[in-house]
Amino acid sequence: MKKESKLKKQRFVSLSAGLVFIVVFISSFILYFFPDRSVTAWTNWCFLGLDKQQWDNLHINLGLLFLFLLVWHIYYNWKPIKNYLKVKKELKIFTKEFNYSLVLVSLFVAGTITMTFPMNALVNIGNGIKAKNFLNDANPPFRYAQEATLKDFCKILHIDENRALELLKGSDIKVNSDKESIKDIADANNKSPKEIYDIIKEGKKYILPSDLPIGIAHKTISELNREYGVDIDKFINYLKYYGIKANKEITFKKLAKENGLHPAKLYSMLLASQMD
């Protein structure tokens, strides 16, 4: 009877760990391939009915549950685990198999911390996919832009507030006060923050942000012209001073990489080139 009860508990632990693993695997996939909450919240992105914050919460809580179940699983399977560590019936922790496992895990840990190949490649691939999924107008104009009040949002982006209110009214968007956040206005009108921005950006005065905008890496110079009013000829001629050749269809990231420049340094050149 006692043995049968233990067997039932072992089954429960193993099945629970298996189910949790499936959800953690899905949440890991979401975290690897999709941008952070500051971006996904801008478009009201969701997957299987859950937004990015909910997937983050699931990953953390179920990850902790998985660790608890794993410890429980080890407890019930301690005898076979001890057998894995035995050589000629003598207990020996550093067996050949254990050493191989230790080397494998250590390589992954050290490679990730120092960002050496191939660990850095895995991270960069994920970051590249995240960026490409939310290029151009899908990115917020600045981090957590949806949390800014309408008044502050307009000031930061050089949008005429009165014109913004007119545009929103013309699109049947109800605004109670300019103290409301972009997110609150969007939620109240069943829209995403991005859709609210798309309505009011007609009143925007084109100006380059003082810091690197989100998603600029994959934009071409001609796209920067359309989005920020960048004078293409000024920028290309300015780059010639530093011996850098560019064309309007090259991406910001590629231009920086080909010339061994940090993106922030290239962006400072862009800013400088637009000054009269």
Q: Average pLDDT across residues?
A: 87
Task: List the helices and strands in order.
Answer: HHHHEEHHHHHHHHHH
Overall structural domain count: 4
Q: Assign the structural class, choosing from mainly alpha, mainly beta, alpha/beta, alpha+beta, or little secondary structure.
A: mainly alpha
Helix content: 55-70%
Radius of gyration: 27 Å
Oligomer: single chain
Number of helices: 14
For the biggest sheet, the summary is:
2 strands, antiparallel
Percent range for β-strand residues: under 5%
How do the strands line up in the largest sheet? Answer: 1-2
Write down how many β-strands occur, each being a DSSP E stretch of 2 or more residues: 2
Low-confidence segments: none
What is the terminal-to-terminal distance? 87 Å
Approximate shape: flat
Topology (elements, then pairings):
Blueprint: H1 2-33, H2 37-40, H3 52-76, H4 78-84, E1 86-87, E2 90-91, H5 96-114, H6 119-133, H7 150-156, H8 161-170, H9 182-188, H10 193-200, H11 221-228, H12 232-241, H13 252-258, H14 263-273
Helix pairs in contact: 1-3, 9-10, 12-14
Characterise the protein shown here.
The protein is mainly α. It folds into 4 domains: 1-76; 86-137, no CATH class; 140-203, no CATH class; 216-273, no CATH class. The protein has 14 helices and 2 strands, in the order H-H-H-H-E-E-H-H-H-H-H-H-H-H-H-H. The protein has a two-stranded antiparallel sheet with strand order 1-2. Strand 1 and strand 2 (90-91) form a beta hairpin. Helix 1 (2-33) packs antiparallel against helix 3 (52-76) and helix 12 crosses helix 14 (263-273). The longest helix is centred in the first third of the chain and has 32 residues, at 2-33. It starts with a helix and ends with a helix. The model has no long low-confidence stretch (mean pLDDT 87).
